[in-house]
Design goal:
elongated; 5-stranded antiparallel beta sheet; two-stranded antiparallel sheet; 3 domains; alpha+beta
Amino acid sequence: MNAIRGISNDLHVICRLKDTKVRYGYRGRQYRLSELYQREKPLFRKDTRTGLRIARATVTLPETGEEAAIIFSRDYCEPQDSDIKGVRKDKDSKWVAFLSTDTRLHASTIIRKYTNRWAIEVCFKESKQLLELGKDQSNSFNAQVCATTLSFLRYNLLGFLNEIEKYPTMGGLFEHLAEQSGMVTYAHRLWEFFKGLFKHSLKCIFALLKIEDDLSPFIDSIDQALCPHLKIKGCET
């Protein structure tokens, strides 16, 4: 908190807490997180906005003495670390605690803002696994910024296509597009090989027969005839 307050007094923190040796001030006494949970346990009430059983305590933070709100919940569970959209872990009896330095926020708002981070984590995870985020080997800072921007741009395009195509997972959509792109790339490479072969063969034939006509119209006519069959359908990622 000292580092954050060194930047600005208007910045607030929302995070999930772990039960460590850190002690929080509450009503004149110091409590560890688990001790504070045991004290607030009888005060759990079901929140109509989130459907969770929660309890709230306003505490003072160590070192800074700043006030913060701690929200305890017994029904909250993280989204499952899975590619299947909408699948969540089974609920268990473990409790969780969230902290917000903005004590004006409602408990449901604190939990909602915290859960928004899951989409950000999924974005970074899939961008690293599928879109080579952070793997650019250039020493140029501008190139690194460009590579990162392109990775996120691809992710947004995949997300848009995922909404249209209704794929169950982002990974499934990526694999389909990668396979389609690979097939098209191979077809183009094959055609470029044969086009070079035709061009060289016709050049030799024209030279042998002393034909002075330009080869370009012949190659272009073949290219135009085959190009409709080599078009990329969808998005090449």
